[in-house]
Amino acid sequence: MRALISVSDKTGIVDFAKELEKCGVEVISTGGTYKKLKEEGVKAIEISELTGFPECLDGRVKTLHPKVHAGILAMRSNPNHMQQLKDLNIDTIDFVVVNLYPFKQTILKEGVSREEAVENIDIGGPTMLRSAAKNYQDVAVITDPADYSKILEELKNEGKVSLDTKFYLMQKVFEHTANYDAMICKYIKEQRKDESFPNELTLTYEKVQEMRYGENPHQKGALYKEIGKCEGSLTVAKQLNGKELSFNNINDTNGALELLKEFEEPTVVACKHGNPCGVGSANTIYEAWKKAFEADKTSIFGGIVVVNRELTVEMAQEMKEIFLEVIVAPSYEKEALELLSTKKNLRILELPNISIKQPEGAYDIKKINGGMIVQTVDAKLLDEYEVVTNRKPTQEELEDLFFTWKIVKYVKSNGIALGKNKQSIGIGPGQVNRIWATKQSVEHAEELIGKGVTKGAVLASDAFFPFYDCVEEAHKAGITAIIQPGGSIKDQDSIDKCNEYGIAMIFTKMRHFRH
Prior knowledge:
Cytidine Deaminase, domain 2
């Protein structure tokens, strides 16, 4: 038996090669791998000795040779194949141990040139892997050092690698090469600044963890991350305390983080089931926390809290008294972390670059039965706005309108958000019509904070008013200013009604549906 070994990731390769030799396997190797094995006492044969042809073109051509690929691809059960090998004086290769040039590591380096990236596109490696995988009945092909022990165990106990294991290894090859090619394609697309949707879409992600279950206990779940640094993403947050994050924890926390990223000033977002339930901005992070908590003391129970400044002892003392699932902050005061960590199940995450947003061209993907729908992320808040009523909003109203507009962008549609003094006071998410969402937001504000709280507040709607009934409800509640996209054929009805009641209204000319 013979093994061809050529690896960039040399983890465990020396010990594996030595054990293969003990099992009677002759080792063939290339380049840096050959040098490493020889230095460590493995009796490896250099690839040029096998092929009778020297490596050339700075190593670009070394394994692309019939003596390599015929030895891999020959079907041992086919007499014609075996006779041709004999006639051509070619021996079989029974193990192919290959992992590819470090393309990912190369493109993630700061300031890497296009030339360096392209030079780290492997050619011979994928070719050998695919050849070996195609002939999986006869060749064991290994891409992952984690599989070395499994191969050795079967070799030592059975004298061969089982067909089932070879079939499993075949699957890993095509996962590996598909991932590799997708990374290259993504890099080229980014270099070309190509924002078009391709005719065939292949995406690649790395598994971060498997979960106990998915959205419900009878579903399976796992977390994957995009290739790259993913700064500001939950996938790179450091967990400091608590149970493993669940599928729902991650989904809901991600929504809270995306809303938080809209704010530069000290801000706290409390979230429940993917919808914000309390949002506050202030001069200090503690004041922001108080606003977010006071906005909805009921829904925050079992919820998620994310903050964009260091979490203080003062905040921790109050948070400790509430049942929370997840807390995320860029950093924690030492005593604050110690206090919160006394709650062993509370998931405490640290995310230093918490305010970094996704790039505008990033994909937002939703699975549907038999396919998926893809769009770019909703990266804009608004480009411009227009005051459409006789009364213009005051500066204070304007600040609250933009504050509330940020919130409603992350409320499930149909969504309405009420705000006052940079505090959310009532949120109506996910209704089948806009008037219900409006009524719900007012009812919640009065129920959770108190009667009359909506007087002098502002209202944000994620899409246009199809009728003026929402303006009527706003007036009844004492709301003085409204922000909405506009664009309905009945816009003028809403404008006229606002003018009648002295309500200021601005159009953003941009909606934020969230389904």
